[in-house]
Design a protein that fits this description.
The chain has a domain at about 10-190 and about 230-265 and about 315-330: 3-Layer(aba) Sandwich (Rossmann fold). The chain is about 40% helix and about 15% strand. It is built from eleven helices and 15 strands. The chain has helices spanning about 20-30, 50-55, 75-85, 100-105, 105-125, 160-180, 200-210, 230-240, 275-285, 320-325, 330-345; strands at about 10-15, 35-40, 65-70, 90, 130-135, 185-190, 190-195, 215-220, 225, 230, 250, 255, 260-265, 270, 300. A seven-stranded parallel sheet has the order 3-2-1-4-5-6-13, with helices on both faces. A two-stranded parallel ribbon has the order 7-10. A two-stranded parallel sheet has the order 8-15. Keywords: NAD.
């Protein structure tokens, strides 16, 4: 793998108002004065747009940031953006997220995750980029019984349409890497959390409900384990990956070997959902989001598993560590403490 020097580069980030996208933009803009960051987002109403606006506001103070409100499913618009800015590196984070929502609203997933990603691939083909990095998901592992999940495992059994679209992205990227020698790296993210995160994620939803004196439902009677990964760890992983594309080389037949890689980015330390709720509740009290005498037991309901969900997610991060000298390591309590403090500030 050859290192790409990010200085003087133009980097296109789709989903720039999203949780991971905005944090990645911010890190790039803070660290590099001479990097141009082009952010695209359609600002849809899947969750509270004011959080997306809050994230974007932290980026607008940088003069080397350009924001374009656009849908990646609009092929003409994407081609125009590539034509105008000629990005060296593309990070595709725009996607319709969420497992449960894919059961209610499948159209959104086909439009954004399939058509949108296809448009990005086509643009990368016609405007040669040095590296395409794109978001996949731990959900591609479906109901795999073997843990930790390894990128060498077969992932042919998705249990949600969302997972199926993400697996499709990996297959499409492989085809384009093979056909057009586009260096591409897919990242399977594991339950990302932190300040200004996605309100549809459990920790955020639980907090909203507890604040409103509602009952939280804990699925699979609490027998769920999740590899919770703090946002700064995810961004650090993406930053390192961006700079080291898979190398272009030819096989014995003289044809290109696809410059194609996939990595897990997870905490490699699954937490039990009940322990997670316990830590979250303690940190919400510490941050004075909830009163010190809050009765959690009265607000907790253990319920069966939901369709599309899996009982455990657990990342094998050895390849990430081997190739990039990095693995996520933020302890859950530290991450939830930062979230609780942010929540208190944002909603006050």
């Amino acid at each position: 793998m050859e290192n790409i020097d990010l200085n003087e580069k133009t980097i296109l980030i789709t989903g720039a108002a999203g949780f991971i996208g905005s944090n990645l933009c911010k890190r790039l803009l803070k660290e590099y004065d001479n990097v141009k960051v082009i952010g695209i987002d359609n600002m849809n109403h899947y969750y509270d747009v004011s959080i997306k606006e809050y994230r974007l506001d932290t980026l607008f103070k940088y003069d080397h940031f350009v924001f374009i409100k656009e849908n990646i499913a609009n092929k003409e618009a994407i081609n125009k953006i590539f034509d105008e800015y000629k990005p060296h590196i593309v990070v595709n984070l725009a996607a319709q997220a969420g497992v449960r929502y894919s059961i209610e609203n499948p159209d959104a997933y086909i439009e954004s995750n399939m058509l949108g990603f296809y448009n990005i691939l086509e643009a990368c083909r016609h405007y040669p980029v040095e590296h395409l990095v794109y978001a996949s998901s731990s959900s591609v592992y479906g109901s795999n019984k073997k843990v930790p999940y390894s990128t060498d495992d077969k992932v042919d059994n998705p249990v949600s349409l969302y997972a199926a679209t993400k697996k499709s992205n990996e297959l499409m990227a492989h085809a384009y890497a093979k056909l057009y020698n586009i260096p591409s790296t897919g990242l399977r993210f594991f339950t990302v959390y932190g300040p200004a995160g996605r309100p549809d994620m459990a920790y955020f939803g639980f907090t909203n409900k507890l604040v409103n004196n509602e009952t939280i439902q804990i699925f699979n009677y609490g027998n769920c384990k999740r590899d919770f990964t703090y946002i700064d760890d995810i961004v650090e992983g993406v930053m390192r990956v961006m700079q080291r594309p898979p190398e272009k080389r030819n096989g014995e037949d003289g044809l290109p070997i696809p410059p194609y890689k996939i990595y897990n980015i997870g905490n490699n330390q699954p937490e039990n959902l009940l322990d997670f709720v316990q830590i979250l509740s303690e940190e919400l009290i510490n941050a004075e989001v909830l009163p010190s005498d809050y009765d959690f037991e009265a607000h907790k309901e253990l319920v069966p598993m939901q369709p599309g969900d899996v009982p455990v997610t657990y990342a094998d991060t050895a390849p990430l560590e081997r190739d990039f000298g990095f693995k996520p390591s933020t302890p859950l309590r530290d991450g939830l403490r930062k979230f609780a403090k942010w929540y208190k500030e944002f909603y006050n």
